[in-house]
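User: My notes are a mess, but here's the protein and S-adenosylmethionine's SMILES. Can you give me a structure?
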Amino acid sequence: MTLTGIQNIFEADRLRLQSKLDAGKTQAERNRLGQFATPTLLARDILAYASSLFPENEVIRFLDPAVGTGSFFSALRDIFLSGRINSALGFEIDSHYGEPAARIWMDTGYSIRLADFTVAEPPSEKFNLVICNPPYVRHHHLQNGDKLRLQAKTAHASGMKLSGLAGLYCHFLGLSHAWMAEDGIAGWLIPSEFMDVNYGKAVKQYLLEKVTLLKIHRFDPDEVQFADALVSSAVVWFRKASPPENHKVSFTFGGSLLEPRYSRDISREDLAREVKWTRFPKSDLSGAKEEKVVLADFFNIRRGIATGGNGFFILDREEITSRNLPMELFRPILPSPRYLAENEIMADTNGFPVLDRQRFLLDTKLTEERIKDRYPEMSAYLEEGKKLGVHEGYLCRNRSPWYSQENRPPAPIVCTYLGRSNTKSGRPFRFILNHSSATVANVYLALYPKSQLAKAISQNPTLLRAVWEVMNLIAPEQLLGEGRVYGGGLHKLEPNELANVDASKIVELIPDFRLSPEAEQLGLF
Ligand SMILES: C[S@@+](CC[C@H](N)C(=O)[O-])C[C@H]1O[C@@H](n2cnc3c(N)ncnc32)[C@H](O)[C@@H]1O
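Assistant: No problem, the inputs look usable. Here's the predicted complex:
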C-alpha cells in the first residue's frame, strides 16, 4: 500500500515530528514510559485489518489509550472514509509528545487528552474500535502503590485478576474493556510474552471467556518489528461479545498481519488446555498433549545466580590478586557464554576451571563487621560498591548481607540461557559438561542430576558424558519450541521450559529407568 495525497503529506509531517520528539529524549526516558512508535506501514495494516471486521458503512468511534503522536489516528484517516469517523480520542500522559501532537491534530476533529489513561473514567458513550500499542513497562518499574491500584481497577473493569508480575500493557488491555461498546472491536499490538508466561494466564482467561478472541498474529522475531524495543510482538484481535459455541481462533505467524506465512484455526477448548500459546500456529495440539519422558525426569534445573551486579561481584583472578582480596571469600564461576569457547570444562587440582579467563564470584555470608576486622581490603572494596550504589539495587537490598549470593552448587551440566535461532552453527543453545567446581550466573541454566540418574552415574562414571552427548543432539526446533521468543531471533529458555524437553534418548542409556509419579506429573504440564 502506498500513502496518497494530503494524508501522505500529513503522515510525513507526523513522522518528522515523531523523530524530533524521540531525539529529545534519552533511551532510558523512553523506556520508562514505553515510548516506541508504531511504524507507518504496520499501523496501516492494523487499521486495514480492523476495517475488514466492520460492515461497510458502520460509523466508527475510535479510541487509542496510548496515542503518542497518533500513528493510529493517521492510519485511521487513511483507511476509513472521513464520513464514517464519528469521533476519535487518544490519551497521552507525556506532554513532550502529547502537546505537539494535539497541535497537529487540532483541525481534524480528533482529540488528544493529556492525561493518564489508567486513572481516566470512561464516558457513557463507548467506543466501537480500540486500537492500541500500549506502553511496554515491566512490572518492576511500576510503583508498589500504583500496582495495587491498577490491579483493583483492572479487575473491576474486566474481571482480569492480574498478578504483580504483569506489565502495564496488561492493565491497559483490561482497563479498556470498560471503554468498549458491546460488539466493539479491539486490536492490541503487545509483546507476545503473555502467551507463554504465568502472569499471562489472567489475560488469556479474559480473552477466552469475557470476549470473543478473533485472531492473534505473531511477527517472526527474525524480522524485528521495532528497531528499538527488544520484544517480539503480536496483534491480538477481539470483539466485546460472549464467544459463540464451537468458536475457533485464527493463529497466524510471520509475514505480515494481512499476509501471514503460517495460519491455523484453534478451538477455544484447545486454547484453554494449552499453556504455551506461542506453539500455535506451527504445531497442533497432538504433540503438546503427548505423554513423554522429559529432562525434568532426570534433572533438577535451576537458573544460575542473579548476582545483583556482575561487574561488581564477579572478578578476574588478576583483579583479586592486585587488590589483595581474600580468595577464600570467592568461588569460581564460569565466564559468560560469549567468552567461553569450550563445551567441556576441565578442572585443575583445586577444582578451578582450566580456562584462560578465570572468573570468581564474591560469595560470603560474613557480616560487614567481621569483614572489616579480618579483611580490610575486602571491606574497602565493599565500601566502593556502596558508593556506586550496588547495595541499593533491587536484589542486593533484599538480601542480608547485601553481598551474599544464592546457594547454587556447581552443576555437572549447564546450558546457555539465551540463544539465537540464526547462528552459524544452527544450534541456539549449548550444553556444557562441567568437571570443575565453578558455579554459573543467570546466563546459564544449571542441571543437577536427580537421584536415579545420580545413582546410575555413580555406578558408571562414563554415563554422564554419554548423557551430555545425547543432549547435544536434541534438535534445535525442540528447544526453540519450548523457549520464549524475543526480538531479533533471540530465544530464552526458562528452567521449566528446558525441563519439558523430550528426553527419550536418555532413557535408552539407562535401560532400567522408571518414571516416578512425580516425574510423570512434571512430564504432563
Ligand atoms: C508504545 S507508545 C505508542 C504510541 C503510539 N500509539 C504509536 O503506536 O506510535 C505508548 C505511548 O503511551 C504513552 N503512555 C505511557 N503511559 C501512559 C498512560 N498511563 N496513559 C496514557 N499514555 C501513556 C507513552 O508516553 C507513549 O507515547
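The CA atoms of residues 345 and 355 lie 8 Å apart.
User: Great, I'll file this with my notes.
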